[in-house]
Amino acid sequence: MDTKVVVIDREKLGMMANAAENSEAAKEAAAVWEAADREKLDALLLEAAQILRSGGLVAFPTETVYGLGANGLDDAAARKIYAAKGRPSDNPLILHISKEEELTPLVREVPEAARKLMKAFWPGPLTMIFSKSSIVPYGTTGGLDTVAVRMPSDPIANRMIALAGVPVAAPSANLSGRPSPTTANHVIEDMNGRIEMILDGGPVGIGVESTIVDVTGPVPMLLRPGAVTMEMLQDAIGETAVDPAITGPVAADVRPKAPGMKYRHYAPKAELVLVEERGQGSAGEALLAARALDETGEARIPQGPGDAVVRMINRLAGERLSEGYAVGILCTDETKNRYPQGVVRSVGLRGQEETIAHSLFAVLREFDDLGVDYIYSESFSRDHLGQAIMNRLTKAAGYHIIYTDEKKEGKSNE
Ligand code: TXA
Ligand code: MG
Predict the structure, then answer these.
(1) CA 138 to each of CA 21, 28, 58, 134, 343: distance values in angstroms, whole numbers, following the listed order
(2) Domain for residue 410, yes or no?
(3) What pLDDT does residue 407 have?
(4) Same domain, yes or no, for 333 and 198?
(5) Residue 19: inside a domain, yes or no?
(6) What is the pTM of this model?
(7) Is the CB of 147 under 6 A from ligand 1?
(8) Does the beta carbon of 64 lie inside 6 Å of ligand 1?
(9) Whose CA is nearest to atom 18 of ligand 1?
């Protein structure tokens, strides 16, 4: 199959969408474009929408990661997604909608907590689990009676879904087991020749997949951390439970609430090990204190891991290098000059967690491309966006963490 790659100018489309939502400034800005421009953009997205309507697959950008879309009400189309990704078919898909009204036909009820969360975070990086209605096929939900629904804010995704006129089932557009794609090139690497079309909207904004909250029970439960953080959920709805699968390995006999969480996700080809100082997990408070200082004008960048972490990573890297292995080191701008050997990659600034979320998967993919055998990674705070970052990293590492006060390496449960 030939895959058609179509480049879409997200900014133009975003301004058009804003204009439609009647902000005066946006209206004016949009008005300067030729009508032909808008028609051209819509014509491209209409082509994608028609592929979806006729049962084909289109990869498209969202604000979190690129998605691999199919008509979510068409059992056969959903099955094609599993085939293209090489994904187990008991792992359910998220339905993407373009307007809140589109939720009603898909679910049995919309609980009060869900209404609050929609108001606070839609459109945006939040997926909610509802009891499904009869029009949602089991092929989409992996046989479950619940359905995951999300309303992305990305203007390309939003317009494409609106034009398709159906909910778009979409997992991340990577081959199963690879890190989620955050650029169109990542999607091309994994999906070229397997799907009808790829919409290239440039790099995504957030870089980690949406937050998932199950709203079917008496207390909403966080199933996957993302850019809508635990703290933000608690602010919006109060008490929120956490699925234990988020923080530790899942025992073979336990079925996690989000079936996808049981697979060894985001796995780089190399053996990835996190190095951490005991107690570093709660370093989020130090980070917040540093941010507060920033705001009062007394700029102070958090120092990141202690010397012990840098020393330990350098020692481990040195040992593997002397054994003839290729070694990658995952660190941040604050420490990148302190690693004299190995392939050193910064994922961003420790003081700005968004930058780390944004680059994490791209750096893991780069290590794959470079063919390193071992990756030693610094670890991060587990608060706020750090919870999502550490969830992805610890899963990618198969929960292998080395503490700086350990004599020997050992597996740990976080
Ligand atoms: O940001 C995102 O959510 C991206 C973009 C494309 O929207 N999508 C994404 O999809 O990450 P995927 O398929 O890679 O991850 C979906 C996760 C899986 O862990 C799956 O098990 C869980 O959502 N999930 C889907 N439906 C569910 C349901 N009914 N109950 C519990 N978990 C569900
Ligand atoms: Mg995925």
Answers:
(1) 35, 45, 21, 9, 45
(2) no
(3) 63
(4) no
(5) yes
(6) 0.90
(7) yes
(8) yes
(9) 260
| Cα of 358 from ligand 1 centre, angstroms | 19
Rounded to 5°, the CA angle 356-359-364 comes to 110
Which domain-ending residue is among 260, 285, 311? Answer: 260
Per-block average pLDDT, block size 10, for the chain (414 residues)? 90 65 58 62 93 98 98 96 91 96 98 98 98 97 97 95 98 94 97 97 97 98 98 98 85 70 70 88 47 47 74 98 98 96 97 96 96 96 95 93 76 42
Task: Please tell me the predicted confidence (pLDDT) of residue 14.
Answer: 67
Give the number of other CB atoms < 10 A from CB of residue 44: 20
395 lines ligand 1 (CB under 6 A): no
Q: What's the structural domain count of the chain?
A: 2
Rounded Cα distance between 86 and 130, Å, is: 26
Do 316 and 234 have their domain in common?
Answer: no
**155 touches 10 (CB < 8 A):** yes
Whole-number pLDDT of residue 264: 59
Distance (angstroms) between ligand 1 centre and the Cα of 99 equals 19
Interval between CA 49 and ligand 2 midpoint (Å):
22
Domain enclosing residue 288, as ranges: 271-403
173 CB less than 6 Å from ligand 1? no
Question: pLDDT at position 114, please?
Answer: 98
Question: How many whole angstroms separate alpha carbon 44 and alpha carbon 13?
Answer: 12
Residue 409 forms part of a structural domain: no
Note whether 34 and 93 are same-domain residues.
yes
254 and 277, same domain (yes or no) = no
Separation between Cα atoms, residue 252 and residue 257, nearest integer Å: 14
Last residue of a domain, one of 236, 260, 284: 260
Among 94, 138, 145, 158, which residue has the most ligand 1 atoms within 8 Å of its CB, making it the best to mutate?
Answer: 94
* CA-nearest residue, atom 31 of ligand 1: 258
